[in-house]
Fold this protein.
Amino acid sequence: MPGSIPTQTTLTRRAAVLGSFAAIPMLRSAPAYGVAGQERIAFDVVRQGSVIGTHQVVLEQSGSTLRAHIDCTLRVGFGPITFFRYHHQGVEVWQDGVFQSLDTTTDNNGEQLAVSARRVAGGIGIRTRDAAPRLAPANTLPLTHWNVACMHAPLFNPQDGTPIAESATCAGPDRVTLGNGREITATRYDLSGAAPINDWYDNGGTWTALRAEVKDGSILHYRRI
């Protein structure tokens, strides 16, 4: 991350937004997300009261296959002058409630990154542009936030493929305000580490909010729209 501008890199590398959790359940015991047809989860990304971008996940269910199309676009600037830009795209695939693959590309203010992860014999094979392939444990998941299952598993960074060594704690019910001003009850999970991050999921398991302290000390809020 250049200078003090917060980015999704900060979230994923420092708190999220990879290593094992203290207690790792068996793969199929983790809760898995499912949809009927198609569902869109979208957020405004807010920093210091200003919207600096959007993050959306479009979920498509076809039989036993669930695909998550992920897009995060951020821009920090003043008028027509851009100080920082970020664009992350990915496709994540689950089959019968089990993670199968992830392919991402990221433009981090001009730095080009890519990750390809596949379920293979013995674990999750992860390839990137700049590092040797590695094999992660079979219950490893990408920290893409939309699926509450990632709060119950060892994780890797979906932007650069590195392990995330953080611990997750379920903090229980909390109140979350949506973009339309409506307040709902959601379960909060706290990820502890170099930079704290919180994720909230509603009673149906849908990702509802995110809060992260980033490198310059400012706070990012994901406001669901």
